[in-house]
Structure formats: C-alpha cells, structure tokens
Specification:
single chain, about 375 residues, mainly alpha, Growth Hormone, Chain: A, 17 helices, about 0% strand, disordered C terminus
C-alpha cells in the first residue's frame, strides 16, 4: 500500500495522510482478527485454519479491486487484515513443528520469506501497474494469487493435529508473565517506529530527496531487497547469537537509521541507503520475535503465534497515524521519522530488559517444549 498511496489518494480525491488510513485500517483488522481466531478456531486442525483464512483474504482482495469509493475501500482493507495475524501465527507454528527443533528461527524465517520476497517482486510491480494502468489491477492479481496459494496449501502442507485445547481463558494465561509483554511492546514500538517513516517513503523520496517519480519502481525493489536479506539474516543470526540479542541489535540500528533520515534524507543517495537499512531491520526482527513469543507462551501457542503479527500491525497503524501528524501540521516529509525515533528508543529499552532477565532461558526446543 505504501508505494501506491499517491495513486489511490488521487483516484479517491483524498489527501496523502487520509490515504494513509488505509494502512491503519488493514493493521487494525489484523488486531481484531487474531483474538477472534483464538475464540472460534482454537480446536481446529492447523491446515484447516490456514485454508479458511486464505479464503477470507482472497474474497476481500476481490472486493478491494472493485471498491467504488474511499470508505468502501477503507472497510475492505479492514476485512482483508482480519486473517493476516492468525495466518502468520499458525504458519509459524507449522514451520516450527516441521523443523523438529533444529534451527527453528531459520525455519520461521523461511516461512516469513514468502512475505519479504512478495514485497521484493510485488511492490515494484504494483507501482509500475499504477503508472501504466490502475491500482485496481493489483488487488485483482492478489485475489488470483490467493487462489493459487489455497491450492498450494492443500497440496503441500501436511495434516497436523490441533493444538491442545486449554480453553479460551487458558490461551491468555501466558500473559501473566512479563516476558511476552516485553516482546509485544518491543515489536509494536520497533515496527511502529519504522512505519512512521515507511508509510510515506514514496512522497519523501520524490518530494524531499529529489528522486524522480519514474524511479519509484526501482526504489521499491531496493526496499524489497532489504526485506528479503534482513529476514534471512535475522533468522540465521538468531540461531547463532540468540533471538533476543538479535532483536536488540537490529532495533539499535533502526534508531540510528530513523534519526539519520530526519537529519539527512535530503541527500538522495543517503536517503535510498537508509530506506534499505530500515526495511532490512523491519523484517530482520520478525522471525526472532515470532519464535521468542512462541517459546514464552506455554499453553497459549495459538494466541502467541498471532501476537507478533498483532503487535507488528498495531504498531504499523499507530506509526502510520503518528507519521502523518507532522504532514498535517505542514512539516516536510523527513519529520515523519521523528516520532519513530522516540518509539524505537523505548523499544530498545524493552529489549535490554528482556535480554537481561530472560535471554538465557530462550533455548530453541521442539514446538511442544516451551520455556515455563
């Protein structure tokens, strides 16, 4: 959505900051969808869950491509977000089980690499389609790809037993510990901080850094490359030095990158480099956070699997909103990074506390042997 905001804003005759609410709407759908899944699908087999969730997303993609006006699109973005957190949560559990406890972070990273590779290919492709045709074709293509994904899940994902049912209340019991709250807060603040800036990276590059609009597809490729490389690096680094230490290191780099964007993004080449670094960190922390939360959620596996995506997307919603405030107040696009600097700095504190108190206990084990 970030790369095509100007096109949608123009088509619906709304401002860039209003179009940014389409990002927030999707993210809020993620936050609502995760607990709904725990309430209604906690006793289902894992494969059945991901099939249903992909069906919802596919139907919503069709509706988005046909949205006649802004508020319909806003509502359909919310619906499309409902399955997101649950889908990646359950998929993380599946990947962890298939790894049999060997290099679990890498296994989760490989699963998440589908999203990062999709960004590498899909973002520049979508930006190009907007320039030569219409943004509506993007969501039509997404619906077609959703059908292909359904067939792939049905054909290649093995059937797995449902998770032990501890009841709806039992799913939330792990939240009595401080460790998962530190991870949730670090995820929300770190990713939200990046999205203060990244939600508006396209107009920042063109209006502030002086990069031509015709180069936006190339900029999208660079951003997507950062996601792919960061995702795999984060998984491999976690298996070597620990997921908590990896998350802390990447959030420190986030802080430096966002501060540099605020101070120096008028320099075109530096602005592009910093964009790459921020997307590298954005996806680099994904698999460590996902796996750590699973490890500290005994009895609440299903909810914990969704929590990182919930925190990630709630952070995105907050970030997109906070990043838009300086624009509404009339400041230039580099000011979108400033709220992010504050958010990420607090996220670093959460990671420091987590690493001090819990990192030694976060041993990579089989999916059924979580840290107590």
């Amino acid at each position: 959505m970030m790369g095509i905001l100007p096109f949608i804003a123009d088509d619906f005759s709304v401002s860039i900051s209003e179009a940014g609410h389409l990002i927030s709407s999707y993210a809020l759908g993620v936050c609502v969808g995760a607990p709904l899944m725990v309430a209604f699908m906690r006793t289902w087999r894992l494969k059945k869950i991901v099939v249903l969730l992909m069906c919802v997303y596919t139907i919503a993609s069709v509706a988005m491509s046909l949205s006649p006006e802004y508020y319909t699109m806003l509502a359909m973005r919310f619906v499309a977000g409902l399955p997101h957190g649950a889908y990646f949560g359950v998929a993380s559990i599946i990947a962890d089980r298939l790894s049999n406890g060997k290099k679990s972070a890498t296994a989760v990273a490989i699963m998440c690499s589908g999203m990062s590779v999709a960004n590498l290919v899909g973002i520049p492709f979508g930006t190009y389609i907007c320039q030569v045709a219409s943004w509506r074709y993007i969501f039509g293509f997404s619906a077609m790809w959703g059908l292909a994904t359904l067939l792939s899940i049905w054909r290649f994902i093995p059937s797995m037993e449902a998770l032990p049912d501890v009841g709806a209340r039992g799913q939330f019991r792990f939240l009595k510990s401080l460790a998962p709250w530190l991870l949730i807060a670090a995820t929300l603040l770190g990713n939200g901080g990046i999205f203060c800036y990244f939600s508006y990276y396209a107009p920042l590059l063109t209006n502030h850094s002086g990069i031509s609009v015709t180069l936006l597809p190339l900029m999208s490729v660079i951003a997507g490359a950062g996601m792919v490389i960061g995702n795999m690096t984060g998984g491999m680094l976690s298996d070597k030095i620990g997921a908590g230490h990896t998350g802390r290191l990447l959030q420190i780099i986030m802080f430096g990158s966002l501060l540099s964007i605020f101070l120096s993004s008028q320099i075109a080449w530096l602005s592009v480099l910093l964009m790459f670094i921020t997307t590298f960190c954005l996806f680099g922390v994904g698999s460590p956070q996902q796996l750590l939360l699973l490890r500290f959620s005994r009895g609440g596996d299903l909810l914990a699997g969704c929590m990182v995506q919930l925190a990630f997307n709630f952070g995105n919603a907050v970030g997109a909103y906070l990043g838009g405030i300086p624009l509404t107040a009339g400041y230039s696009y580099n000011y979108t990074a400033l709220p992010g600097v504050v958010m990420v700095s607090i996220g670093i504190i959460c990671y420091v506390v987590f690493c001090h108190r819990y990192e030694k206990r976060a041993q990579y084990r089989c999916n059924r042997d979580y840290v107590k």
